[in-house]
């Protein structure tokens, strides 16, 4: 009998992950990653997880049984949410888990943020009498704890400053805004086919190693609330996104950078062209940058 109950419990716990993943329906174009504990939605900047709670056999009545099961489900969901948050990439070299392991203050703050998670939707009553609860925590709260604040001073992009010719060579994929001659309203970095992974704090680098966009290029507080970049899978739909809408400038990435492949490299020529457009400084200063992923 004990063996049967143990097997049944294992089946319920194992199925909870598949149940959780199945319920996270995302809109077309959304960039999100499911892991063993929940869903990291980089487009909508939230992390979600579910928990399962069993009805205690010794509950005095149905109401108490359900209340205890819901409480247990929430505890389970928060436990899963912590693990889901740990998997979030912060930079091209670090995850939230790296930050938590290396700094007890960060770990404490992240866990406190997760304890403040909100329930998503209604409690679900499952066929085996257990209940399922979904919880969500905004990425902004986690970012406020782990977002980098320092930046390495890059070499200038100006041709004159480096002693290189000032002329900008024309590429096969020219850097052009939607409306020529008008100030740009944002940057769209097309990374399709490169294997770029989403993160909280990606960078855009020129192929000489200089930083076109990254920490130090925007106000940290603004990046926490708005996100360093937006993520989308549909480049045409992305052009109408409020983050870059109006006259966005599209740049084609050439390769990834970093151990976790979250940074994108563009050609030096494209970096120079982009920096020369009216509205460029305002665009990057207001995090008006969108990455297009596969």
Can you offer a commentary on this structure?
It is a single chain. With 294 residues, this protein is of the alpha/beta class. The chain has two domains: 12-146, no CATH class; 159-292, no CATH class. It is 35% helix and 21% strand. The strands form three sheets. The protein has a five-stranded antiparallel beta sheet with strand order 1-2-3-5-4. Strands 6-11-7-14-10 form a five-stranded mixed beta sheet. A four-stranded mixed beta sheet has the order 9-8-13-12, with helices on one face. A hairpin with a 4-residue loop joins β1 (32-34) and β2. α3 (96-102) crosses α4. The protein is elongated. The relative contact order is 0.15.
List the helices and strands and how they pair.
Blueprint: H1 2-23, E1 32-34, E2 39-41, E3 46-53, H2 62-86, H3 96-102, H4 104-115, E4 118-125, E5 131-138, H5 139-146, H6 159-162, E6 176-177, E7 186-190, E8 204-206, E9 211-213, H7 220-226, E10 230-232, H8 235-238, E11 248-252, E12 255-257, E13 263-266, H9 268-275, H10 280-285, E14 289-292
Parallel strand pairs: 7-11, 7-14, 8-13, 10-14
Antiparallel strand pairs: 1-2, 2-3, 3-5, 4-5, 6-11, 8-9, 12-13
């Amino acid at each position: 009998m004990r063996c049967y109950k143990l097997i049944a419990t294992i089946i319920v716990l194992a199925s909870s992950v598949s149940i959780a993943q199945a319920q996270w329906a995302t809109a077309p174009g959304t960039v999100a990653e499911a892991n063993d504990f929940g869903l990291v939605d980089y487009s909508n900047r939230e992390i979600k997880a579910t928990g399962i709670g069993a009805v205690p056999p010794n509950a005095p009545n149905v109401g108490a049984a359900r209340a205890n099961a819901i409480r247990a489900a929430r505890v389970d969901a928060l436990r899963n949410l912590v693990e889901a948050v740990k998997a979030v990439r912060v930079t091209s070299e670090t995850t939230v888990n790296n930050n938590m392991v290396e700094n007890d203050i960060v770990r404490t703050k992240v866990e406190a943020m997760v304890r403040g998670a909100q329930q998503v939707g209604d409690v679900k009553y499952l066929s085996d009498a257990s209940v399922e609860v979904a919880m969500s925590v905004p990425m902004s709260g986690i970012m406020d704890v782990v977002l980098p604040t320092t930046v390495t001073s890059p070499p200038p992009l100006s041709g004159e400053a480096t002693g290189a010719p000032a002329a900008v060579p024309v590429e096969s994929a020219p850097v052009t805004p939607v409306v020529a001659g008008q100030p740009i309203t944002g940057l769209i970095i097309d990374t399709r086919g490169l294997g770029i992974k989403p993160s909280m704090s990606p960078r855009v680098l020129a192929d000489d190693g200089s930083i076109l966009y990254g920490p130090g290029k925007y106000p940290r507080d603004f990046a926490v609330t708005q996100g360093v970049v937006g993520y989308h899978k549909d480049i045409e739909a992305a052009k109408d996104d409020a983050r870059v809408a109006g006259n966005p400038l599209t740049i084609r990435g050439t390769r990834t950078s970093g151990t976790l492949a979250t940074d994108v490299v563009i050609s030096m020529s494209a970096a120079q062209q982009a920096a020369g457009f009216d509205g460029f400084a305002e665009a990057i200063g207001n995090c008006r940058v969108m990455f297009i992923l596969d």
